[in-house]
Amino acid sequence: MSLRADSHTGPRVGEKVERFEVEKAWLVDPASGREGPGEIVVSGGLLESVVWLEGKDALGVTDAGVVVAPGFLDLHAHFREPGFEDAETVATGSAAAAHGGYTSVALMPNTEPAVDEPGVLERIRSAARSNGSPVEIFAYGAVSVDRAGEQLSAMGELADAGVLGYSDDGAPVRTSKLLRSALLYAGMLGLPVVDHAEDTAMTAGAEAAEGYVASVMGLAGWPEAAEVNAVSRDLAVFADALRDEPRARLHLTHVSTAAGLDLVRRAKAAGLPVTCDVTPHHMAFTDEWIAGARRWSWEALGADGKPRDPWADGALVAAPYNTALRVNPPLRDPTDAAACLAALLDGTADAVATDHAPHTVVDKEVEFGRAANGISGIETALGVLLALVDAGKLPLARAVAALTSGPAGVAGNWPGAAATPAARSRGLVEGASADLVVFDRADRWLVTEGALRSKGKNSPLLGRELSGRVLLTIAGGRLAYEDPDPDRT
Amino acid sequence: MTAQAEAASAADVKTGGAAPGAVWHHRHLLDLDVVSWPEIELIMRTTDEMKGILARPIRKVPALNGRRVTTLFYEASTRTRVSFETAARNLSADVVSVSTATSSVTKGESLVDTVRTLEALGAEILVMRHSVSGAPYLAADVFGGHVLNGGDGWHAHPTQALLDLYTMRQHLPGGDLHGRKVAIVGDILHSRVARSNVWSLTAAGADLWLCGPATLLRGMDRWAVAWSGGAIPGRGRFHVTSDVNEALRDADVVMALRIQRERMQGGLLPSLREYATRFGLNAERVALARPEAIVMHPGPMNEGVEIAPDVATSGRAVITEQVTNGVAVRMALLYLLAGSHDPAHAGEAGR
Amino acid sequence: MTDRQIMTEDEIRRAIVRISHEIVEKQVGTQGLVLVGIQRRGVPLARRIADAIEEHEKVRVPVGALDITFYRDDLSLVAQQPIVKGTDLPFDLNGTTVVLVDDVLYTGRTVRCAMDALIDFGRPRAIRLAVLIDRGHRELPIRADHVGKNVPTSREEIVKVHVAETDGRDEVSIARQSRAGEPAAAGNQ
């Protein structure tokens, strides 16, 4: 394959890509379900041609090298603006997203002030317009005023201003009663409630997932029941609301327990139009990382399907209590991680969402129990999913779908969003505006503070190499990210 | 041979005592999970020496002369802090105490900044106590000298477990804990003393029983089960039970842990009186243990709650010995840490 | 690497006998005299001197052992040298004349530590020093009152003292400084 060789006369970030070709790469098109050797040409910002190679033209082209896929859509990220610009801004977040292969990102409203009325939304929109990045920014509005869980936010006005849905993320919708009202009202507007399922009464003071690791390390446990309880509540309230308003929609974000996912599975089987997402970190990291292990979740399962004991088998290689691992929901044990992957494979989980949560050093370089929750993950999501692919746990096409058609499908499930750009089909379609990512599975990159475009350096993967270096990201026909090494071929 | 000559010969027997095997190489002592049994035995032998010093008319040696030991206590604790400071002074170290009630921490200074400031002020050995598990690991990450954990949250209190072990060895035949039953009764869930004792006593081969009300044992069974298959080579397993009679029966060592009033407020215990009735170490319960069994407590005691006053002052109670042994153990650790600068271990991942 | 023998078993025996006479001569008798061996090899040597004194004076002078581990001014040795167990001073030091006994006198630092340690135990009237070998290169103003043999050495050399009680034979030899990390025999200082 070849990229345009001359980076000096090529477009800068934000500018239209006039001419770009990829020869002999592996194309993955979730829209048609097709993958294989192919070539693409981008011209004047449009995906002018997509050619599938056959016969001897296809010789030697495998899925282990350069891959072209549609740009990714993240249904859950935090760009911290307004209010916490030290941790991230729309500009830096967009740069990070593009570096991670994302061309569209949906932002959570837990900013300061919260996005509970259109004025704040406009600030975000304006920041998105003016920073020069072509990454498409969507936004959720808060469910409640100031996310305080008391009164509904200005949902109608927010809908008119174009929010994607509503969430009090960072926290669950506080009461069942409020959740039901929100589902009804939002449903009327054709938009979803996206809930962070957590029974906060059970998690007060909790530091790490309840289990073997927390018991040994003296960390206050985060019970599994806290998520299961909340998921159960949400599903019951949703079923109730649906009877009164058939357009009501619920999306459960970052579900992390086997039991919670099982409730979703059964609800779907019973016909409830609920959707959910899982994060890369809940599939790949586990609570034993807090003790100092760094093996992938699937490597931490013994032959009997039970979690290994990191103190017994020499798995501890890093210092314990690393605050980059403190996240909500917490990292769980290897069986829960395996359940997240299984949910993605069997469709219980409709998508992967990153829950990109950048934090400043001030908020993270403190005692574990005092550290802010969150992993800066939008740039490493692809690498983590490719680790699953490399390990034979997830087919490449499914990984790409989880990042593209999956999330688009979730948005398509929301009547008021189905016709919007969020739900547009993610595929390699001739004649459409070019929206794609080119990455090289054979090329690894080292995750360092310098390599991350996000202001949030709170990643547990610092110092680790990931495969699947992103070479180029084009969003809406314009250049979003280009790998800085021009000699790369 | 004259009696004196015999005594002199006996003294010579001691001179053969070159310690086999272990050499101390840890830069910090944060938890006992990374300390091997030979290293624990080295600590025990060094503690013997330190006890010898404490028995002298001048109970002081110049081993840490000119070295600065700084105690940084985020949690108020007069006994432990004074124990460490006494230990440091007995080794002729210069001692600085920082207790956060009176320091800039109340003005919101972060732990990292505090540690860096103390290092700039000359601290070489930092003895830390903190209410959040894992805090000393953060300190060790940014501090250029040695960190000695004086207790962090619910996680670890290595010097306490070591002095407990030392005390037990003094009273058990042959100083050997293999197969000896040790019962620890109390608020296990929140106890760093219990967790550190799990590491040290399983390494010593003891038959360890952790006992308390179900709400204060939550999660510990997972640990016991994980180790039940002999998961870690060389480590014994332990038992978790809320049946205090089963735990105490035929025990060689009985240890009570302090119950805090906050546990009632947190909805974990109906009342301290109920705890005392059902789990308190009274004479009747202690009689279930072996006749020669010793009674221990890390202090400070809530007499009448976890331990009855007559048990605390009985002949079997070794609680004041624990305090003396505590000074000796801490002297031993300060000595070993101060002498450990093996560059080969400089990169030890903050352990 | 060949070691050069500088004292045989017989030479050691004679030196000890001579030292024992010198000690009594200087003290004008055995009244108030105690011998304190510095761990490790100073201890058997102190006992042999006491045996020799007993033979010619028919009096058993008290013998003690002194471990100076915690008096060293160099903690880097902690990692390499095991704790040598045994300070045993089964007598009251106050008013006594203590003769410190060690195998080799070199820089003088060990003896300085030993004096610090002794003084923490009591207040002797006087402290004297008896050594089997004086190898020169003093770094402190310390001299031995009684010397078995003066042996000029270079800093690259190691003096190895073997005594039957700890090493199975009696011999003193000199070797060139060898592989790095090999602890100096008998911790000569």
CATH architecture of chain C: 3-Layer(aba) Sandwich
What kind of oligomer do you see? heterotrimer
Q: Which pair of chains has the greatest number of interface residues, and how are they split between the two chains?
A: B-C, 42 and 38 residues
Q: How much helix, percentage-wise, in residues of chain B?
A: 40-55%
Estimate nothing, just give the exact number of structural domains of chain C: 1
CATH topology of chain C: Rossmann fold
Instruction: Give the C-alpha Rg of chain B.
Output: 21 Å
The end-to-end span of chain C amounts to 23 Å
Low-confidence stretches of chain B: 1-19, 342-351
CATH class of the largest domain in chain B: Alpha Beta
Beta-strand residue percentage of chain C: 25-35%
Q: Superfamily at the CATH H level of the largest domain in chain B?
A: Aspartate/ornithine carbamoyltransferase
User: What's the Cα radius of gyration of chain C?
Assistant: 16 Å
Put simply, the count of helices of chain B is 14
> How many domain units of chain B?
2
Structural class estimated from helices and strands of chain C: alpha/beta
As laid out across the biggest beta sheet of chain B, the strand order is 7-6-5-8-9
Helices and strands of chain C, in order, run as EHEHEEHEEEHE
Largest sheet of chain C at a glance? 5 strands, parallel
Question: What is the residue-mean pLDDT of chain B, rounded to a whole number?
Answer: 88
Description of the molecule:
- By secondary structure, chain A is α/β, with parallel strands linked by helices.
- Chain A is 28% helix and 20% strand.
- Chain A has two domains: 19-68 and 431-482, Urease, subunit C, domain 1; 72-423, Alpha-Beta Barrel (TIM Barrel).
- In chain A, the strands form four sheets. A seven-stranded mixed beta sheet of chain A has the order 3-2-1-4-15-16-17. A four-stranded parallel beta sheet of chain A has the order 5-6-7-8.
- Chain B has helices at residues 3-15, 37-54, 78-90, 111-120, 135-142, 158-171, 192-203, 220-228, 244-248, 262-265, 272-279, 283-286, 309-312, 319-338; strands spanning 68-73, 94-99, 125-130, 146-152, 181-185, 207-211, 238-241, 253-256, 294-296.
- Chain B is globular and about 55 Å long.
- The N and C termini of chain B lie far apart (53 Å).
- In chain C, the strands form two sheets. A five-stranded parallel beta sheet of chain C has the order 3-2-4-5-6. A three-stranded antiparallel beta sheet of chain C has the order 1-8-7.
- In chain C, helix 1 (9-27) packs across helix 2 (42-57).
- Chain C is an alpha/beta fold and 189 residues long.
- Chain C has a single domain (8-155), classed as Rossmann fold (3-Layer(aba) Sandwich).
- Chain C has helices at 9-27, 42-57, 109-121, 164-167; strands at 4-7, 33-38, 63-66, 97-105, 126-134, 146-150, 157-162, 171-176.
- Chain B binds chain C through residues 2, 4-5, 7-9, 11-12, 14-20, 23-25, 42, 45-46, 48-49, 52-53, 56-58, 60-65, 91, 335-336, 338-342, and chain C through 39-40, 43-44, 47, 50, 60, 62-65, 67, 69-73, 75-80, 82-88, 90, 116-117, 120-122, 165-166.
